[in-house]
Specification:
The structure is a homodimer.
Chain A lengths: L12 H15 L4 H4 L5 H10 L5 H7 L2 H10 L2 H10 L2 H8 L4 H10 L2 H10 L2 H11 L6 H4 L5 E4 L4 H13 L8 E5 L5 E6 H6 L6 H4 L13 H11 L3 E5 L5 E6 H19 L14 H28 L1 H6 L1 H5 L1 H24 L8 H32 L9 H32 L9 H24 L5
Helix pairs in contact in A: 1-3, 3-5, 7-9, 8-10, 15-16, 17-23, 20-21, 20-22, 20-23, 21-22, 22-23
Chain lengths: ~475, ~475
């Protein structure tokens, strides 16, 4: 199974491997460890996902337990849960005990509670305590993300001895969080950090205290996962130490988990921006009923809010009856308000997520959106009026004797509505944050709905003023 | 300036430091290096952003050139450009030559071309060649992201000698990309990779070839930055080697740059989803005119497309004149189509970005959206009909003698429109991708606009059928 240079543009490696592995599985499973020795566990997991499901357990069994545990860490969550729940607690414990502590806790968190307890009771005393400790933190906190594996040494250790500690840890199979060495004081509190590179560069004979950075960037165990992301990204870290209130190092969050968090958070933000609850599961895997439930809530709220447009329209039913041409442009002017609001909202929620703007900046944003809205509204108003002039002049439609006044109504209304849309769309995330909601809930549909009602009123009020004495 | 335990919940460290540093700058600038020795360069950069701008150049000069170069890497782009363009080419070259090669190239790429050339001519021969080489790759390719700093050794080097190479590199001040050691064959081609941890764990006397992973995960220099993100995230890497077609290691992309790319891509996706061109610059920094230009394009396109609603309405002007009550529900039914479309689009574009669905999956998605749309439409239809029943029954409004038929029209139309919206919203990203556009351009406003025209037609056609013989 020789694999030439890996080329991600070509077919995924797993697609190439899966048929060979299936053949081996049926004929000589004992050859599988040797043949897959150099394959990345992420690719092995992809192979497992491609195999017929009845063969996956046999594939795991054919691998060495360490490799099978690695594979499980990269496997699709649903498949992993099904596989582990189908195993005896003893076999499951063999694999799960070989996972990194954070993935072990995450996996046990996913499966049926009764199953999980049986598996935990099969773990060694040390692994059990560690796992129960990790499971005690909320999944979206720094404590829930961290692994307990790390290397720490007393600050007065020499750099040679510290390097030897890293070596021992690496040989013992601890796989994560050996990017840095943490220095502790006599009471075990974190007082310094040193990257492996800096440790290697240090002059022999010096102590860790001499060369370590004393201003360690840390987070508390209950810090929100967004805070972990911010710290990692701001300080370019590959591991963030998690420190208790008393200053003791409890574990580290590694950058690969931070990347997963960034991608999950982004998925949630996009789904909220689209006007629904976050799905929590991949689109193709979530049950149809769960998905409908997560979408129906916001759709219903939006529908009920949008009913205000009917109320607004009812106030102007007389005007619509008199000048039916006014009704023709309702969708046009309304949607422009929603569109400009959607732009402003997505700009502001994203800038808030990146901490480019804070709640205190609301007036600065308003001072940008006001002129932007006026300019955009004027552009759209000009286009809208031109459209009516062209249709009327070329005889494509007859808007009646006073068509110039109708064109003026549409033009002026667009300026007002787009300005209002930009302002409302940009201010909504601030308002939501101010009253304690997630500003990302300011979805494009929500803004559009809010702007629709006001937009209609603006349109009809402009019409009343412009058409007074002629059509109305 | 002793700083107690760093707590990100408290005021940012830079806010605490800035006044002290300003005082030092005015009284004894020679003390600044000592007082800021332990401060992370990201925090120093924040301090520089807080200082009055006329003092920033003096602050940089007070620091050792290495620290000033580190600070510059973390500084706000606009400020960095202004600072460097105000320096003499010689002083700028002193700082820029101390940056990591990738940041050096990025910085030179930002500033005025003439200035950049003057600075490059002041660099050492080696740094000049390296910088010009990096600048030759597109900024959004793996080549444009990579740094040339890395440690590679011939595959038959012993692990002790390899460790010594890392040590030499670390001492020489190469700061990036020392997470792994790369093994090359006699022709200099990349044949293996070994993390620093694995190198430390290796049995003394073995060669790098014996312990290295031979299936190295790599990208080509012209690989898109999204491909770099995918590989990093999929294989949990901290550094991705960039390899030429001939198999030579050209550089590595480090995980901190990958995180920056992920966040930039997300900003672009959110802005596109909001219905505009991506801004390329932070919201509070982009010029008002540039922002208006990036927003006006899509707004105008959407307005012109939305004009089709006017055309659609014109076909039904006679019906509106006869039954003005029909006009009252236009915003309601139209917006529900747009909202369900917006949900479907954001779900599908995000699933595509994460590679959970590919273009070939379009019919699987359609088979989910069809029942989801029917269910959601039925829920909304029931709510809509109830609304009319309540208003009419409690005498809050009179929709006329045939109000039951109008309620039925609204209910049936909502089922049709929401189903159509869900289908259209989910299929649009596939269609865009199929014809070569970015599926992320399928914005909520674009979907809403497309669905509006069809939604109106569905509404009036349902009205014609239901009201035929009574009101119409």
């Amino acid at each position: 199974m020789s694999l030439s240079q890996r080329n991600p543009e070509d077919r995924p490696i797993a697609v190439l491997l899966a048929p060979d592995i299936l053949a081996l599985l049926l004929e000589s499973p004992q050859d599988i460890p040797g043949e897959t020795e150099e394959v990345h566990p992420a690719d092995l997991a992809d192979v497992a996902e491609l195999l017929p499901e009845e063969h996956v357990a046999a594939f795991l069994q054919a691998l060495a337990p360490e490799r099978a545990a690695d594979l499980l860490e990269y496997l699709d969550e649903d498949l992993r849960v099904r596989l582990i729940e189908a195993m005896s607690p003893e076999s499951a414990a063999v694999l799960i005990s070989r996972m990194t502590p954070d993935d072990r806790a995450d996996t046990l968190d996913e499966i049926d509670e009764e199953h999980a307890e049986e598996i935990v009771s099969e773990l060694s005393e040390e692994a059990r305590t560690e796992t129960e400790h990790l499971l005690s933190f909320p999944a979206d906190s720094a404590g829930g993300l961290m692994t307990t594996e790390h290397v720490s040494v007393p600050a007065d250790t020499t750099v040679e001895a510290a390097l030897e500690s890293v070596r021992v840890a690496a040989r013992s199979g601890r796989r994560e969080a050996t990017y840095a060495v943490y220095a502790t004081d006599e009471r075990g509190r974190l007082v310094g950090v040193l990257s492996l590179r800096e440790l290697l560069a240090a002059v022999p004979g010096t102590t860790v205290r001499d060369v370590a950075w004393t201003e360690v960037i840390t987070v508390g165990p209950m810090a929100d996962r967004e805070e972990v992301v911010r710290v990692t990204s701001n300080y370019d870290l590959v591991a963030v130490p998690v420190v208790s209130e008393s200053g003791h190092l409890m574990g580290v969050v590694t950058v690969d988990d931070v990347i997963d968090v960034i991608q999950e958070e982004q998925t949630e933000d996009v789904q909220k921006l689209g006007g629904m609850e976050a799905l929590d599961e991949p689109y193709m895997q979530i049950g149809l009923f769960s998905m409908i439930r997560k979408r129906a809530g916001w759709l219903s709220i939006l529908l009920v809010s949008e009913m205000l447009t009917t109320v607004a329209m009812q106030q102007f039913e007389g005007e619509i009856k008199k000048v039916a041409a006014l009704a023709l442009f309702i969708p046009l002017v309304m949607s422009s308000g929603g569109n400009s609001g959607s732009q402003a909202t997505s700009l502001v929620t994203r800038a808030m997520a990146l901490r480019e703007v804070s709640v205190a900046d609301w007036w600065r944003v308003a001072l940008r959106e006001l002129p932007a809205g006026l300019a955009l509204g004027s552009i759209l108003g000009a286009i809208g009026m031109t459209r009516i002039y062209i249709w009327q002049s070329f005889g494509m439609w007859n808007y009646g004797e006073h068509w110039r006044l109708i064109a003026m109504t549409v033009g002026i209304a667009l300026v007002g509505i787009v300005t209002f849309g930009s302002l409302a769309g940009s201010m909504l995330p601030f308002l939501l944050k101010r009253v304690g909601f997630d500003p990302a809930s300011a979805s494009a549909p929500l803004v559009a709905t809010l702007v629709d009602v006001t937009g209609l009123s603006i349109y009809f009020i402009v019409a009343l003023i412009v058409l007074k004495g002629t059509l109305l």
